[in-house]
Amino acid sequence: MIRPAFVSTTSRSSRSRLVTFALISLALSFFAGEARAQSRTIVLDPGHGGHDRGGVPRQRVGEKGLTLDVAQRLRRVLQENGYRVIMTRNSDVFVSLGQRVAIANSHPNATFVSVHFNSAPRVGANGIETYYYRRDSSSLAANIHRNVVAGAPTENRGIRRRGYYVLRRTRIPSVLVECGFLTNPEEARYALSSSYRQKLAEEIARGIRGVRAPVGKPLARDSATSPDVLPQPFNGPDFVRATPRSRQSARSSKSSRKKKSSTTRRTRSSSRKSSSGG
After folding, report:
1. Residue 255 sits in which domain range?
2. Whole-structure pTM value
3. What are 130-151's pLDDT values in tens digits?
């Protein structure tokens, strides 16, 4: 009777040590994971700059200064949370799209976030839009977008897939946030408020940090589908869908490129034969 009791006690002791070890390992891995997340590099890209004012002709409120201000505020918030931040520009200078992409791609373990304000010929256009292109950027776009929309007193214009140069050419997860329409008088007033720009920075940071925001505001009525959105590899209630016509256009464009490439190859082949006397 003594021996089984002794074995049982030893077994319980071993299990206890194993559980303790597992909990310690879990805690260490958690904090290590937190440290890795906190040490991530973010490339912030304030849109426009220098001679590129941004926006549309005769737009009263310039975009380039506001994007820089939001990005600088965002940098401070991220740095306070342990992130390393790279800026594509930190003053009113012109940086080409190619240079912006090169900066992003020189940090292969980073995330690229481009900050913009929107504009349109129609004064009534309003709301927040977020863009991505790569499949691995869709969840980041959704998280940033939902946080910004939750904190903004304006419309949810949805998450859209589009092949903007800085999204298409970057080799890291990349998102472009449109923080409202400067051509809309009410949203322009918001953008000119330093407290609102700080709020935008904080909400974008929450999205980058992975703080989950619920899908709150429904999509604006005119944003449910759009002819200028590429077919989505990821779906959600606030992802704007491509219209059937735009899907057909995308397929037609792809087919056209293939035909053009085939024609070019045949032409080159004929030229080589002619030059070789074949």
Report:
1. 245-278
2. 0.75
3. 999 999 999 999 999 999 999 9
In this structure, is residue 101 part of a structural domain? yes
- The label of the residue with tokens 């992802």 reads 239
Could you give phi then psi for residue 133, rounded to 5 degrees?
-135, -50
Contact yes or no for 101/93 (Cβ under 8 A)? no
Of 62, 64, 86, 68, the closest CA to residue 188 belongs to 62
User: For the purposes of burial, counting CB atoms within 10 Å of the CB of 245, is it exposed (0-12), middle (13-18) or buried (19 or more)?
Assistant: exposed
Q: In what order do the strands lie in the sheet with 156-161?
A: 84-87, 41-46, 110-118, 174-181, 128-132, 156-161
Neighbours of 250 (CB within 10 A): 14
128 secondary structure, DSSP code: E
Helix axes 64-80, 194-209, angle to 10 degrees: 50
In a domain, residue 10? The reply is: no
- In angstroms, the CA 245 to CA 118 distance is 25
Q: Smallest Cα–Cα separation from 140: which of 104, 167, 179, 169? A: 167
- Tens-place pLDDT, residues 185-204: 999 999 999 999 999 999 99
